[in-house]
Amino acid sequence: MKILITTECYSPVINGVVTSIVNLKKELEKAGHEVRVLTLSDQAKSYKADDVTYISSLGIDKIYPGARITLFKNYKYLQQLIDWRPDVIHTQCEFSTFRLAKYIAKCLRIPIVHTYHTVYEDYTHYFSPNQKWGKAMVALFSRKVLKNASYVIAPTEKVSTLLKGYRVTQPIKVIPTGIDLSSYTQNKFIENKNKIRETLQIPKQSRVLVFVGRLAKEKNLEEILSYFSQIDNQNLSLLIVGDGPHRQFLEKYVRKLNIEHKVIFTGMVVPKDVPAYYQAADLFVSASNSETQGLTYIEALASGLPALCKKDACLENVVDNGVNGWLFETFSEFEHYMNDIFIDPNEYKKLSANAEKKAFDRYSSVSFAKHVESVYDHAISFYQNPRKDLVYLNQSEWNQ
Question: Where does the record place the Glycosyltransferase subfamily 4-like N-terminal domain (predicted)?
Answer without folding.
Answer: 14-182
